[in-house]
Amino acid sequence: MTNKDNQWLVEAISEGLVLKYEDEMSTIEKHPRCSKRHYEKMSEILGFKVKAPRRINKKGMAAILLAAALLLTGCAVFRNEIRDFFVEVYETFVKVTFDNGKDDEQIISETYELTYMLEGYEQTETIVNPSMVRYKYTNLEGNVIIFEQIPLANSNYKVDAEHSDDTFLTIGEYKIYYRYMDRNNSYIWNDGWYALSIYSDVALNSADLENLISGIKK
Collapsing DSSP states into helix, strand and coil, what is residue 134? Predict the structure, then answer.
């Protein structure tokens, strides 16, 4: 579904809900009200001011329902598009970038974090600054997993091309560029806002990789 389709869907949902609200309210002849003393007593008990309910006009209800409709559609209308890859292969390295956007930020305004990590790994390094977010995790065997977040405008990855191979993976809605060899596994993708990557010195199985990626939260 395109962004234009999503916008039409949101508008249709909003208009339908407003009409339904108006229809329901038209059937109510009387609006019961409590005494002023009742509201004062409730305010005293609850610790904040309780007011008598009032009928919301059509314009106000439209604004509320439009916000709800946007939430129901996952706010996809205003989301940046996930970018395509550019992969350039040289003699000793591979360069991975994404197609350029017109208004890509050059700093990180929202910091991501990992809410899932493989058992036995502990966070041993944290770097958070306007140009990069980097978390390093290590287990008792010395194995390492690194997550990085950088602005799309600054994305320019170089990974080893010697004695390695690559493929594309699909995890949820994301297309992942995967470059691999014995102890060098690179997973690179973007979410439309930032370039993201996971590096591991052991190959991650599909379940762990999916849990790691789906566990990345703002």
Answer: strand
Q: pLDDT tens digits, the chain, 218 residues: what are they?
A: 555 555 555 555 555 555 655 665 566 555 555 666 666 666 666 555 656 555 555 555 555 555 555 555 444 444 567 888 888 888 788 888 887 666 667 889 999 999 999 999 999 999 999 999 999 999 999 999 999 999 988 888 888 777 788 899 999 999 999 989 878 899 999 998 899 999 999 999 999 999 999 999 98
Out of 49, 78, 107, pick the residue that ends a domain.
78
Per DSSP, 126 falls in state E
14: phi then psi, degrees, rounded to nearest 5:
-60, -50
What residue numbers bound the domain in which 193 lies? 85-217
Q: Are 171 and 210 in contact (CB under 8 A)?
A: yes
* CATH number of the domain bearing residue 98: 3.40.1000
Give the SS3 label for residue 218. coil
Q: Are 208 and 137 in contact (CB under 8 A)?
A: no
Q: Structure tokens of 67?
A: 């916000």
Which of 31, 58, 78 terminates a domain? The answer is 78
C-alpha distances (whole Å) from 144 to each of 90, 122, 159 are 27, 10, 17
- Per residue, what are the HEC states of 43-63? HHHHCCCCCCCCCCCHHHHHH
Q: Are residues 147 and 164 in the same domain?
A: yes
